[in-house]
Amino acid sequence: MAMNHIKSLRVIMIAKEAVRTVDQRTFATGTGKAKKGGKGGAAADAPKSTLSKEIKSTTVFGANILKDGADPKILPDSEYPDWLWHLLDKRPALSALRREKIEILPYEDLKRFVKLDNRARIKENNSVKAKN
């Protein structure tokens, strides 16, 4: 009977060793060639662009959203609408708008003032409610 227990322990030990060797973490080794340029090698592995400078300066690459479409061509500035050039203009902050007289504000700034003031009031009310 003791022999049966010893045999079963041996089987268990062998099974544990097999699991340990399968479960063991290993790391890949290099191929022997050292890469120049420090860590990684993504910059060295990146494919070189084969497009000419003329094509690069006349086409917007990656802007095509259609399956069978082509990338759009860059047009002269006169072909684009006027509002496009004002999208990145700096607009006054709420504090600057509060310092101005409301009666003399242009319509766009007045609209912005009302929107930002409402937003600030809502945030203030929410913080007061959260504290109570």
TrEMBL record:
GO terms of molecular function: structural constituent of ribosome
Compartment list: Mitochondrion
Keyword Membrane: no
Region (Disordered): 27-48
Keywords on record: Mitochondrion, Ribonucleoprotein, Ribosomal protein, Transit peptide
GO cellular component: mitochondrial large ribosomal subunit
Family: Belongs to the mitochondrion-specific ribosomal protein mL54 family.
Name recorded for this polypeptide: Large ribosomal subunit protein mL54
